[in-house]
Design a protein that fits this description.
InterPro entries: Glyco_hydro/deAcase_b/a-brl, NODB_dom, Polysacch_Deacetylase. Pfam families: Polysacc_deac_1. It is found in: Secreted. By secondary structure, this protein is of the alpha/beta class. It has one domain (49-268): Glycoside hydrolase/deacetylase (TIM Barrel, Alpha-Beta Barrel). It is built from eight helices and ten strands. It has helices spanning 3-23, 59-69, 88-99, 114-121, 123-140, 157-163, 207-219, 243-255; strands at residues 49-56, 76-80, 103-106, 147-149, 169-174, 192-197, 223-228, 230-232, 240-242, 259-261. Strands 1, 2, 3, 4, 5, 6, 7 and 10 form an eight-stranded parallel beta sheet that branches. Strands 8-9 form a two-stranded parallel sheet. Strand 4 (147-149), helix 6 (157-163) and strand 5 (169-174) form a beta-alpha-beta unit. The longest helix has 21 residues, at 3-23. The radius of gyration is 29 Å and the shape is globular. Bound molecules: zinc ion. Zinc ion is lined by residues 55-56, 81, 107, 111, 151.
Amino acid sequence: MTKKKLLYLISFISLIVIFILVAFDVSTDVPVSPVAPKKLKKEEPYQPGLVLTFDDDYVETWYNAEKELRPYNWKATFFICKYSAFTKDQKEKLHYLQKMGHDIAGHGYNHENAVKYVAKYGLDAYVKNEIIPLKEAMQKDGFDIKSFAYPDGARNSALDKRLLNYFDFIRGTTYGELYPKSQYCYYEDKRVIYGLGIDDDYEQFNLEYYKSLLLYAKEHNKIVIFYGHKTVDNADERLETPIGLLKQLCAFAAENKLKFYSVDDLKKLKN
Ligand SMILES: [Zn+2]
């Protein structure tokens, strides 16, 4: 048989086979190409914004700040330490802040540096003495704390891992006037977040720089996280955040349609 004839024969047999398959609807084992999964509808990115956080036990100064910043419809998260020493008046003011929509969170029972404490006494002792009693004491007074900020920003991954059993979010700290693109102070859909300091004694204390971060957040759908301490009119000591600066940040946020989030709000965001 010539090569040409052989080709004709193969073609003929193929045609017959196809005819039989089609005519009798014979199923074949030829795998069908998988149906492409429906593309998940991409969620709209959340509204860019900022998280203002304040640490320690300066309830009176925060109460004053609330009065001054209410017209801006601001929102903050207050990380509390040394709660067992709070007076009745301080507790009432903290309740007032909570009632005004702020988030009340934890910062250690005795404000121990977590890394140093763990090195000396171990992780179990840290949780037993710094976390559990704080949560219990505050819970008893109606403060269900859901997040935590490390005193001195001192943290490590073992601590994060352990404390995330007790809290939804843990806040560390970050420093320096880095390019907005290189900053670490944005919410990145993670449960460990980093705030940038806005007290007057920090090296990066600079309203224009803070505004540049907010603008970057606006353009890239991000949320900036700041932290301060004692909110005062005239900041001239360590750990003081000028209320004037906060007013300017609040006004700038409003102008640029940046939303105020509490730390607790972050878990409601789709990611
Ligand atoms: Zn502190």
